[in-house]
Amino acid sequence: MVESLSRAVWSCHSHVASPEDLLYGDRLGHRYEYDSHVINHAQVSVGDLLVIRDAHLVYGYGVVESIDRRPGIKTMRRCPTPTCRSADIVARKRLSPTYRCNDCKNTFAVPVPEEKDVLLYSATYQNWWFEFPSTVPVRVLSDLYAGGDRQNAIRRLVPDQATRLLGTLGGVEAFLHLELLGGKTAAPGGHVERLVRQRVGQQQFRERLIDRYGATCAVTGTQPEAVLDAAHLLPFADRPVHDEDGGLLLRADLHRMFDRLLLTIDPATWTSRVAPAVLRKHERLSAFDRQPVAVADRVRPRRSLIEAHHLAARRRWRDLEPTVR
Question: Which residue intervals define the domain HNH nuclease in the entry (predicted)?
Fold first, then answer.
């Protein structure tokens, strides 16, 4: 079972699915932008977990790495009623007049613009981003809010309940991802981010691996080239070099498991191994366990690199299940 996180968890309304709305600079999987007019803006901190949603779907979650602040101007849209001037207005697609004020209940065709000095915030979360593999309706968050502030763009979630839900929604990959976020164990040689950091020249590296191995996943064998990723075996390397002896081709879903130490290769037998604790929770993954590596002996990656990844995975497994030796 995934433990709750010792960090704040926020539900963040994003406009990533509304490209026509140019007032927001959100980029899904990279950053979340907001301003000082938003309630709870000052409460979000580095290390907090952001659950990114819109009005209909929840897309995934990430951990705040940095928050940039800069002065700016925000154009508010207000009710034209002189005694109201509320910003709590909604656009109605099928009714006329188009707009309605939720405070004074007045309807009108055009809101009154008002420029306001604000601080603009940009929270970056890309290195610890997890996107849900399937559609998640926003209603799943309804019972997790810590308060009744239903109209706020940034709303606090109950941490332990949110953690359990995120693990359920994300399935097997979220299981490990959230365990790592819990901070129970650091990956050998540094942070787990080093296993998944992007390196310059990734596409060229992938092409060289395809030349070396053919369109072959190391675990599942021949696959369509489009579904294959280049997996690095240099998690502890200080030099960002794309070494063909330090890479394998893996199907995209298996690549993510490999990077998260959920899947590894046993250098003694050259077979794939899946974390036993996870196999018990997800029996279907047994299809990827103890499979002979589909790579010819003469082009296998360096054994020392396979050993390093295998050791890191086994250490992770001991943390997930103490009985593993």
Answer: 217-266
